[in-house]
Amino acid sequence: MSRLAVTSLALAQVRSHRKLSLEFDGRPVAIYGPNGAGKTNLLEAVSLLSPGRGLRRAAPEEIGRRAAGVGWRVVAEIDSLGHAHEVETGAEPGSPRTVRIDGKAAPQVALGRLARVVWLVPAMDRLWTEAAEGRRRFLDRMTMSFEPGHGDAVLAYEKAMRERNRLLKDEVRDPAWYGALEGRMAEAGARIAAHRAAALARVAAAQAGAATTFPAADLALTGPEGAEPAATESGLAEALAAGRVRDMAAGRTLAGPHRADLTAVYAAKGVPAAQCSTGEQKALLLSLVLANARALAQDFGAPPLLLLDEVAAHLDAGRRAALYDEVCALGAQAWLTGTGRELFAGLEGRAQFLSVTEAGGDSAVKEEA
Fold it and tell me: Superfamily assignment of 1-128+303-369 in CATH?
């Protein structure tokens, strides 16, 4: 199988990293150091090699060094399916983020044609117990890893919905205005529903066909209050038209893919994820991330870049070792962070190691043997 790997990474004025240049050989990258040293900032830089706002969902002005008051840049050489590409992304103060691929300006969605990136961060440990919005973000990120154009459908839907919500709040009753906006919402919403369903099917198949120590999760998508969400363009248009009076009373749109929820059940036990132990919830998340990666390896032609921030939390030594074995067997360039090198003992001889320290607000990165 071909590979997907970052072979070099250069940062300029990215959060705590004033200037940094690193080379990589395609193996997993284990990054360790004290809390606050700048480990997650490295992972965030790699996450910006994919469409969207990165693993912190940060606006461009939040990524640059606040004290510097200058623009920031991430420049990477990527080996994608046997082809070398240079990707540059960044922003000047007060300007939107830009992307250049092989020296030419490109839209963010073009990044998805070169690299697929999947991540797991500590904030996601609460995924099964927090509000549905977090699970939708998780689902849409997973969906976008299979279909980079999914982000455009989400943006088109949300733009039309904002306009409809303004009509509702102003108590506008002209059916022609609603019909036009609801038509746009229904068209984009049907694409969103189709993309999400396809992604869930791919992940379910990847879980079912894998020999893994991580528990499988039965996944389902529900609408508000557990109802079956409308998935077709005509069904969405009808639901939106029928809900105008109710929505006007609420001042917002109460039906549609923006109200969907992702549910998960620990398959072997038949227990909802929200009722599982903290360790089981983490294991279920890792199972989904690994299944996502296996499915992408088949669809894209190479496993994705895996960003696993503080991944050892809530994992015992046995599960940590199993995770490292699965990552290496998959052939993925995984980027893992932790507070100490001992957490990555199972990767000795199979990974590159970076130590990160911080002094005076500046991070320093050193490659270790």
Answer: P-loop containing nucleotide triphosphate hydrolases (3.40.50.300)
